[in-house]
Amino acid sequence: MSASNNPDLSIPIVERSGAVLMEIGRRVPAFAQGLHLQSTGQLDQARSVFLQLTERPELTAPALHQLGVIAAFQGDNGRAAGLFEHAMKLEPAEPLYYCSLGTVFERMGDLPRAVATMVNLAVMLQTQGKHDDAIPLYRRILQLSPLNYSAWVNMGTGLAWTNCSREAVVPLIIGVILFGRFLPEARELGDRLLADIGDRLPELTAALAVLPEGLPEGRLERLEEVLQTLDKALRTAGFIDATAASLTVALKLAPGNALARWNHALSCLARGDYAQGWADYEWRWVWDQFPEPRRMLGAPQWRGEELAGKRIYVWGEQGFGDILQFTPLAQILADRYGPDDVVLEVSAPLVRMLSAVLDRPGMRVISRPDNPHRFGVEEGFDYHIPLLSLPHFLSLRVPDLPLLPGWLQLPAEEIARGATLLPPAQPGKRRIGVVWAGRPQHSEDARRSLPLALLGSVLDAIPDAQWISLQVGNRAGDALAFRGRLHDMSGQLQDFIDTAAVIANLDHVVAVDTGVAHLAGSMGKPVSLLLAHSVDWRWEIGTTGSPWYPNHRIHRQSALGDWASVINSLRAEHAALTVQAVS
Questions:
Q1: Where does the secretion signal sit in this chain (predicted)?
Q2: How far apart are CA 66 and CA 61, in angstroms?
């Protein structure tokens, strides 16, 4: 029983299932003979062949399946179902048996069991990471059972995992609406989401117009987990203003859920609610998948105690950009609380640069140790604190920004050294640094980085620009395609002090959301920041400026993956700067 017997099941996993039988026939001549007899209508002879093959353990399940196909062809659907179920027990990971069982249940008019079988298959595929196979099955399930809650939310989850975030939002919200037919909190959330973003999702309105009345069918997953997936899809699709409502309900249902708290923190921070955002941000240490280890150091964590006469160890966490963005808080801590000694631990590539800028009596910069549960120096401390916990315990709010504008000023000798690294200046041209890709290890790097080729039109369109590549790592070689228009500096940039020394001699920086964007912003340089549609919390919602860096000009994707609009906006910005320079 293959897809050709049921046109409504023309979905990829079903279409491919017949290849399983042909492969067995290629290896086992007797099985091939049985398939030939079956295809030519010689069903009794085919049955005899497959009965004999059931005695061979490696062929029992596929032989039982073919016996079921013969029974179904002869109208004995009940016997066929039993044979398919027996085959499934022997080989529970073979999609072919689920497909045939679901089809025969459908022929029998037993839609609940047909749907349940297909849901089991789709969930199995999804668990294996085969979302592209599972999603068409969910669509087929919803044709048979449009109120099937599992199909809606699992299809949304699969779409979210395959980077179809906007498409994922629709089935996930429908899942919430179905759940709301017996849970008031979910009903209120569904109404809120429709009011907030319904006018931007006509596909959601169209789907709801044909959604039947009645209670949801099928197994009901835990709603708080669905809401976390919905939050991810909303943020990635650019509906970040709607995320807080879903996470608030998730936390009401499961107040101790660390991942929901963490996501709620990001949503609050993006909307400028720093009081709640920084408080919830502390839940990162409870979330078991947070990429940084929760360090067990030989001192209590500082929580706002007096520091006069004390020594405190501030340790950097997360990426280079995070450390650069929040380093001013270590200086503010020292100025506000007057400890005897502040030691700031950062990633090794940042040490030389930050030491040159920050080291003074009572403050020094050191490198992160190999053992995360030890201090980076053999000294005792009264307190320690993660760098990104300082905003909470220093009560940082949006009006406090920018923190210390232009705080990162290199010594004169480093600026002079940077000038020697650059190619000769071209008269009448602005020197503009370019970074188009971040670290590939970053979870969002595929979205935040862009092909250098897309910037080609900008390189050509700005006549008063001397373009300097600040890109390092495995994407630095992209600059070779623009030799003559883009000067590659990657060979001279060994760590951040080299990059900073070069930037000190530039007029402008164009960068995607990477550490260089924070570095240039911390130095007070003008920055054109190129942002994906799914924005990091620190760049807020829909703004063209940044409260953290007054000289940033933000260019955002107008839709997921739409770098063209970003490039057009960037070209317009620099064309205007060219006009200003001329006038």
A1: none
A2: 9
Tell me the pLDDT tens digit for each residue of 137-186: 999 899 989 999 999 999 999 999 888 888 999 999 999 999 999 888 88
The answer to whether 142 and 154 are in contact (CB under 8 A) is no
Phi-psi region of 511 (alpha: psi -120 to 50; beta: other; left: phi over 0): beta
Q: What whole-number distance in Å separates Cα of residue 440 and Cα of residue 291?
A: 15
Could you give the 3-state DSSP secondary structure of residue 133?
A: helix
Cα–Cα distance for residue pair 285/388, rounded to 1 Å: 11
Parallel, antiparallel, or unpaired for β 508-512 and 486-488? unpaired
Please give the structure tokens belonging to residue 247: 């996470």
How many beta carbons lie within 10 A of that of residue 360, not counting itself? 9
Rounded Cα distance, 454 and 567, in Å: 7
Closest CA relative to residue 405, chosen from 331, 512, 352, 491: 331
pLDDT at 582 over 70: no
pLDDT averaged over the chain? Answer: 90
d(CA 246, CA 260) in angstroms, rounded, equals: 10
- The structure's pTM equals 0.80
d(CA 548, CA 270): 13
- pLDDT of 278 above 80: yes
Contact 244, 267 (CB under 8 A): yes
Please report where in the chains the tokens 């995607």 appear, as a residue: 512
DSSP label at 59?
A: G
SS3 letters for 529-543? EEECCCCCHHHCCCC
Task: Supply angle C-alpha 252, 255, 257, rounded to 5.
Answer: 120
* Nearest partner of 101 among 33, 17, 28, judged by Cα: 17
Q: Is the peptide bond before 402 cis (omega within 30 degrees of 0)?
A: yes
User: Using one digit for the tens of pLDDT, what is the confidence trace for 426-475?
Assistant: 898 999 999 998 877 666 767 788 888 888 888 888 888 899 999 998 88
Quote the pLDDT of residue 471: 94
3-state secondary structure of 290: coil
Q: What are the angstrom distances between the C-alpha of 109 and each of 78, 211, 329?
A: 11, 22, 67
d(CA 70, CA 180) in angstroms, rounded, equals: 45
Quote the Cα angle for 272-277-523, to 5°. Answer: 60
Torsion of CA 77, 83, 84, 87, to 10 degrees: 180
Q: What's the one-letter identity of residue 125?
A: L
Helices (H), 394-487: 412-421, 445-448, 456-461
